Amino acid sequence: MESYTGFAEVYDTFMDNVPYREWAQYIRKLLEREEIDSGLVLDLGCGTGSMTEELASYGYDMIGVDNSEEMLEIAMNKKEKSGHDILYLLQDMRQFELYGTVKAIVSVCDCINYITEEDELEQIFRLVNNYLDPGGIFIFDFNTEYKYKEILRDETIAEEREECSFIWENYYDEAEGLNEYALTLFVQEKGDLYRKYQEIHLQRAYTLEEMKARIEKSGMKFVAAYDSYTEQAPTKESERICMMARECGK
Fold first, then answer.
1. Up-side HSE of residue 207: CA atoms within 13 Å toward CB?
2. Which residues make beta-bridge pairs with 44?
3. How many C-alpha atoms does 47 have within 13 Å on its Cβ side?
4. Alpha-carbon distance 93 to 72, whole Å?
5. Does pTM top 0.90 for this prediction?
6. Which regions of the chain does DSSP assign to beta strands (E)?
7. Distance between CA 207 and CA 241 in Å, rounded?
8. Which of 45, 66, 163, 177 would suit a FRET pair with 203, their CA atoms being 20 to 30 Å apart?
9. Ramachandran quadrant class, 177 (left: phi over 0; alpha: psi -120 to 50; beta: rest)
10. Which residue from 61, 70, 8 is spatially nearest to 31, judged by alpha carbons?
11. Residue 41 half-sphere exposure toward CB, CA atoms < 13 A
């Protein structure tokens, strides 16, 4: 079962609790500190383009990369409505290619956790370093082991909306550091008719130390880590960590 096929259609409905605008303001503040207030910025794992659109509204020349055609179709619809000049590319983030370098690369909503092999994570970081301008900035977030182990655990989550509903069955394998959730969706199509979709999502838990090590090994320089989208340092109970790294030679 492929991820983000049936889910793409209702992704924004179930992600309406994500404060994309506030996160974009936070990212913009970090970039402006690095004197990046314009120019090319890549949204890696852009999904339906919510963050891409927010950053485009600040005047950045945005590129969005995602490997889900269904998600990019929705992103393209948003682009048509907003009028923003965004380039969307259907690519796997493990092998993405750009026409040149960019001033910054961002990746939000725990896209990085979907990379379950450490060598593939390092490959992505090497590509990021390769496509950043000299001294360019990489900002990304990831879910912590604490979140998988203590919050999501072996829980079942269900939510019903007027036009769709879902059942999320979560399982965290502590020994392997892998979090799997089986997603069952019921999406309304016509009248009282609902179509059922099933997807399996797999994410890996990484520690802050592992992320720092992969950043350094890829050629980038670790700059900072924060407790989610705040100015505070991460703690043992941080559920999401934001990291910033800098291009440091090819």
1. 6
2. 65
3. 22
4. 14
5. yes
6. 40-44, 61-66, 87-90, 102-107, 132-143, 156-160, 164-173, 178-190, 193-204, 221-227, 240-246
7. 10
8. 163
9. left
10. 61
11. 31
Is the distance from CB of 7 to CB of 27 less than 8 angstroms?
Answer: no
Which token pair is 86? 């965004």
Q: pLDDT tens digits for 78-114?
A: 999 999 999 999 999 999 999 999 999 999 999 999 9
Written as one string, the DSSP assignment of 121-179 is HHHHHHHHHHHEEEEEEEEEEEE-HHIIIIIITT-EEEEE-SSEEEEEEEEEETTTTEE
Separation CA 224–CA 139 (nearest Å): 10
Query: Over the stretch 58-73, which tens digit does the pLDDT of each residue have?
Result: 999 999 999 999 999 9
**At what angle are helices 6-14 and 69-82 packed, to 10 degrees?**
50
Q: Domains along the chain? A: 6-143+207-246 (3.40.50.150), 146-204 (2.20.25.110)
Opening angle at CA 198, ends 192 and 203, nearest 5: 140
DSSP 38: S
Paired residues of 87 in beta bridges: 63
pLDDT tens string, the chain, 250 residues long: the values are: 344 455 666 677 777 788 999 999 999 999 999 999 999 999 999 999 999 999 999 999 999 999 999 999 999 999 999 999 999 999 999 999 999 999 999 999 999 999 999 999 999 999 999 999 999 999 999 999 999 999 999 999 898 887 788 899 999 999 999 999 998 888 888 778 888 888 899 999 999 999 999 999 999 999 999 999 999 999 999 999 999 999 988 6
